[in-house]
Amino acid sequence: MLAVLVGTHRIELWHVASLAVILGVVNAFDNPTRQAFMFELVGKDDLMNAIALNSSSFNAARVIGPAIAGILIGAVGLALCYFLNALSYVAVIWGLLAMRLPPFVRPERTGPGWDDSAKVPASSARPPRPRLGHDDSDHQWSSASRSWC
């Protein structure tokens, strides 16, 4: 859509603002879903490596993508760059559709979901308990993040 608007010279500010809002709403659902899906895709043993690889590729794309876009904008124009970006999403969708995963098995619930959520206000209203004389500096969480436990 953006490629067509730019290519026909009909692009206006409200088009860009509307598409930015839509992209923000889509990303609000897409990013957490993708991160939750990663565990099912790679399993517990490879999860840390998958997170590192995902982060590396995301940050590399943030650096390399604008550089390639700058070269392409100078060579072929802005409208074709938007079209190539839209075309790249087709490859991503094709890759997602090509995945073959085992069927999802929902874990059994031990009780209603509201049982655990009722504990949150009570535990967050409680003042933090100091942890004196307890040294587990090799623990993965810092003492500041555990001080309220």
Summarize the structure.
With 149 residues, the protein is mostly helical. The chain is built from seven helices and no strands.
How does this structure look, described?
With 149 residues, the protein is an all-alpha fold. It has a domain at 2-98. It contains seven helices and no strands. α3 runs antiparallel to α4 (78-98). The protein starts with a helix and ends with a helix.
Set down the secondary structure blueprint:
Blueprint lengths: L1 H6 L5 H30 L4 H30 L1 H21 L15 H4 L1 H7 L17 H4 L3
Helix pairs in contact: 3-4
Q: State the separation between the terminal residues, measured CA to CA.
A: 50 Å
Helix and strand pattern = HHHHHHH
Radius of gyration: 23 Å
How much of the polypeptide forms β-strand, as a percent range?
A: under 5%
Note the main attributes of this structure:
mainly alpha; 7 helices; 0% strand; 149 residues
